[in-house]
Amino acid sequence: MIEPSGRRERKKAATRQKIADTALSLFLERGYDAVGIREVAAEADVAVTTVFAHFASKEALVFERDQDFEERLTRAVTGRPAHEPLIAALHREVRALVRHCTAEGSAPVRRMIEGSPALREYEESMGLRHAQALAAALAADPHLSRSATACRATARFAIDAYALACRADDPGATVDEVFRMIEAAWEATAP
């Protein structure tokens, strides 16, 4: 995530993080469905309007790094060194993102998400949006010369690799296995 440069931006970022941390703490302590936005706002010592100024919905409080996730994936395509193959860059980035979702202490959050239909639905819609952004980045790269279908499928498979690995007993092996398939499919679509 890019660090805010000005004082105002830093204060906004700090407030956003405080709200997200407070919400997650309350959700884990009392259950996602048992906590309302008003309670989050009161505990974070901000107005309800401030919560909604930073987060579009209650579900977004759980996935507060959503925008960073999408930016990292698209940057793996657009910001990779000229000599680095695309699939290797995506593989590396997805592995790094999986380390975050499987880090020590993440299991309670994963259980909370899995136990809530609203959070699972939000996560799925987020994945679709990330796949669209990643597909657009792939399609925009003139050096890749793949069809729109190949770009969309590759993007979706990369997002699915992340989702599967976050739930797997061996996340690293899962990412590696899926990316071997992605690489084979990507190579098969070469002009």
Mean pLDDT: 92
Element order, helices and strands?
A: HHHHHHHHHH
Report the count of strand segments: 0
Structural class: mainly alpha
In terms of per-residue confidence, which ranges show pLDDT below 50 for 5 or more consecutive residues?
none
For the termini, the CA-CA separation is 35 Å
What is the CA-atom radius of gyration, in angstroms? 18 Å
Strand content: under 5%
Summarize the amount of helix as a percent range. over 70%
Largest sheet: none
Morphology: globular
* Number of distinct helices: 10
Keywords: DNA-binding, Transcription, Transcription regulation
Protein name: TetR/AcrR family transcriptional regulator
Domain HTH tetR-type: 13-73
InterPro entries: Homeodomain-like_sf, HTH-type_TetR-like_transc_reg, HTH_TetR
Describe how the helices and strands are arranged:
Layout: H1 7-30, H2 37-44, H3 48-54, H4 58-62, H5 66-78, H6 86-101, H7 107-114, H8 117-140, H9 148-167, H10 171-188
Explain what you see.
The chain is mostly helical and 191 residues long. It contains 10 helices and no strands. The protein has helices spanning 7-30, 37-44, 48-54, 58-62, 66-78, 86-101, 107-114, 117-140, 148-167, 171-188. The longest helix has 24 residues, at 7-30. The radius of gyration is 18 Å and the shape is globular. The mean pLDDT is 92.
